[in-house]
Amino acid sequence: MQKIILFYKFTPLKDPSAVLLWQRQLCERLNLKGRIIIADHGINATLGGNIKDLKIYVKELKSYEPFKGTAFKWSDGNRDDFPRLSIKIRSELVTFGQKHKLKVDTKGVVGGGKYLKPKQVHELLNKKGDEVIFFDGRNAYEAEVGKFKNAVVPEVEHTRDFAKALKDPKLDKIKDKPVVTYCTGGIRCEVLTVLMKENGFKDVYQMDGGIVKYGEQYKDDGLWEGSLYLFDKRMGTKFSDKAKDIANCVHCNNKTSNYENCANKTCNKLIVICRKCNKKTLCPKCQKKLVTA
Ligand SMILES: [Zn+2]
Ligand SMILES: [Zn+2]
Fold this sequence. Notes:
Number of strands: 19
CATH class of the largest domain: Alpha Beta
Structural class: alpha/beta
CATH architecture of the largest domain: 3-Layer(aba) Sandwich
Bound molecules: zinc ion
CATH superfamily of the largest domain: Rhodanese-like domain
Strand content: 25-35%
Shape: globular
């Protein structure tokens, strides 16, 4: 039986290259595939493999003092949802291009939004009602197939666009309101909330464990709508059979949650396309070129 684990930990690492060597040996020994990013301020990873091997991995990871207390999210999937094992050292765990603004100590990121567990999100809503704003911390295309009810979805194509997007005057009207940010597993919100506070947002919360944890608990009976985009072969996941399709197919406009890359390799654009239109996996632009050529 195989599974996928997802985790991150912000903590100062004195020797990222030593961590990389250790991680490579550990993952190869346990026959895990996936992606690990290491920076001098922590680690971020998604790994697939046999449950028993993943359990050994978790134990060994936590045995290293800086990674003690790391929270793991388990989901369905397997080793071959990843093409290989990739372990890299980067300057940032998530590429906001704002490393100079990020301070990390042994307790984690300094100066971010307050953590809310899924249940506490609901408590905040019960207390403050419509005042509460959900804020999507992902790329806009991820929010197309799934997001929280009435969430603000900034027009960002890459995480590094956030620094500029947060300066948009359109956001001024929500800066005094309670804002709850969310992303897939929580890591992007760690940095995003620091940047938001710096840009004048006064009451900032981040969803602890992200959409993954919320979905585990509330499935499609809470405030989440649609499916969750994932950066691996699975492309996305639904929390239950009740999950709604909220995105429109680029060709026929029917509701779908299916993503494909445009079949024109030089384009390769990620498009929302329904299963019926799947045969012509070209984005509308490339499709048009083909017809007029
Ligand atoms: Zn279609
Ligand atoms: Zn295309």
